[in-house]
């Protein structure tokens, strides 16, 4: 899929195969992308449903009229599903992690308030930070031409992460103490894979023990220790290649 992607609330009841894209998405299409009549576009709800159309006209600075939207397709969820539990990094590195994980193909991100996280999401500040992560996933999904964007969950405690790990078909903690590399582990063909990425200060011994009880052993990526904002992206790429999703 090479046509630029734009997000709409719903693809139900397309009016005669024509759709007016306005608001922020229309402004991006007209004023930033500078799309013109005859160019192909994809409209999606970000949940797997999409339709391909052709630009009929660009009106003003924020209205794009799209025609030939007769068929709505649905992209099935890929298997196995990959979720990354991402400890909260400092500054904007959390958004960087979400952006790059979305680009490579992660299916879900769970923000994790690990005990050694310097950053803590509380009150309005936490809601604002979560909103930025979700907006980043949406924009990165569009940029990478996805039609099924990653789910970004509410921030989880360590106990909630342990419950998620216990339900997974394969669960792992990325940690330098792992004796086995992630690139060599046996993976399920379907179901849920959950990876835990710790904070800058590392996963605490108590958290490692809690996650081990839930069935998540430590695994390493390589000899170097990656930053928390890049480890999830690297690990997701390894899994996508090994499960055949990148075949």
UniProtKB/TrEMBL annotation:
It catalyses: uridine(1498) in 16S rRNA + S-adenosyl-L-methionine = N(3)-methyluridine(1498) in 16S rRNA + S-adenosyl-L-homocysteine + H(+). GO terms for biological process: methylation. Pfam families: Methyltrans_RNA (PF04452), PUA_4 (PF20260). Its EC number is 2.1.1.193. It is found in: Cytoplasm. Keywords: Cytoplasm, Methyltransferase, rRNA processing, S-adenosyl-L-methionine, Transferase. Its main location: cytoplasm. Specifically methylates the N3 position of the uracil ring of uridine 1498 (m3U1498) in 16S rRNA. Acts on the fully assembled 30S ribosomal subunit. This is Ribosomal RNA small subunit methyltransferase E. It comes from Streptomyces violaceorubidus.
């Amino acid at each position: 899929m090479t046509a630029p992607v734009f997000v709409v609330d719903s693809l139900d009841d397309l009016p005669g195969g024509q759709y007016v894209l306005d608001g922020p998405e229309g402004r991006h299409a007209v004023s930033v992308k500078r799309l013109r009549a005859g160019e192909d576009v994809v409209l999606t709800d970000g949940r797997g449903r999409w339709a391909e159309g052709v630009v009929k006209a660009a009106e003003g600075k924020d209205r794009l009229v799209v025609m030939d939207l007769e068929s709505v397709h649905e992209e099935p969820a890929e298997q196995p599903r990959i979720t990354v539990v991402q400890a909260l990094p400092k500054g904007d590195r959390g958004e960087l992690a979400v952006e790059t994980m979305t680009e490579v193909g992660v299916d879900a991100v769970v923000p994790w308030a690990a005990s050694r996280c310097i950053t803590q999401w509380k009150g309005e500040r936490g809601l604002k930070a979560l909103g930025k992560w979700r907006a980043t996933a949406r924009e990165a999904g569009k940029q990478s031409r996805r039609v099924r964007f990653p789910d970004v969950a509410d921030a989880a405690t360590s106990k909630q992460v342990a419950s998620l790990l216990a339900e997974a078909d394969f669960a792992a903690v990325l940690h330098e103490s792992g004796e086995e590399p992630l690139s060599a582990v046996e993976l399920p063909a379907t179901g849920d894979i959950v990876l835990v990425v710790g904070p800058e200060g590392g996963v605490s011994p108590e958290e490692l023990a809690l996650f081990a009880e839930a069935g998540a052993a430590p695994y390493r990526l390589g000899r170097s220790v990656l930053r928390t904002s890049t480890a999830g992206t690297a690990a997701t790429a390894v899994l996508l290649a090994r499960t055949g999703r990148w075949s």
